[in-house]
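Before relying on records like the one below, remember that each one covers exactly one chain. Contacts with other chains, cofactors or solvent are not represented anywhere in the record.
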Amino acid sequence: MYHFHVADDHPLFRHAILEVIQRHYPDAEISQSVNLDSTIHELENNEDIDLLLLDLHMPGSTDLFGLIMVREKFPSIPVAIISAVEEVGTISRAMGHGACGYIPKSCSPQDIQQAIQVILGGDLWVPQEFKSSLTPVASEEKDLASKIATLTPQQYRVLSYMREGWLNKQIGFEMGVTEATVKAHITAIFRKLGITNRTQAVIMMKDF
C-alpha cells in the first residue's frame, strides 16, 4: 500500500491531487500539510512515505528552499514538485537539486496520474515539452544549496527578507520578533554560509 504526502497550501489544487490519487490508488494512505514546518514534522514522524508532492511556493518555503531542506533531511523520500511555475530554468534547477518529478499545476488529471505512476516506478518525470531543454545545475549552486540546507526555516525567512533589502526592524516586525532576535539569526546565517556581511548575502542569493 502506497503512502502519499501532499504539501500544498492551495485547497483547490490539493483537492485535485487527492482526487487523482484516490481514483487510481484507492488503498493508498494520504497525509497532507499546508506549510513547510508541518511538512517537515510529518516526514519526521513518517519516513516510509512513498512520494512527497511538494508545492514549490508555500508558507515557510520560497523558491527551492523546501525541496533543498527535504532532500537534505530525508534523502530516501522521493519528492515531486508541484507548481504553477512553468519555466525551464526553474524546472531544471528543481530536478538538479534532487526532485524526481516536476508537475505543473496546469497539468490534466491524466498527466498527473502518469507522472505519479512513472515516479513510483523509479523514473524521473517532467512534461514532454521540457525534456529536451533541461540544463544541469552548476556545481557552485549545488554547493550553495548544501549550505542553505543547514539554515532553519526562520533563518531562511530572514535571509529572504535581507535579499529584498529589508532592514532588521522591518524583518522583526514582519516576523513578530525583536531586532535582537533578527540579529542573532543573521549572525547564524553568516556563519553557516561562510560570509561576513549583508552585501555578500545578497550577492550570493541573487540567482538562487
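The CA atoms of residues 98 and 116 lie 16 Å apart.
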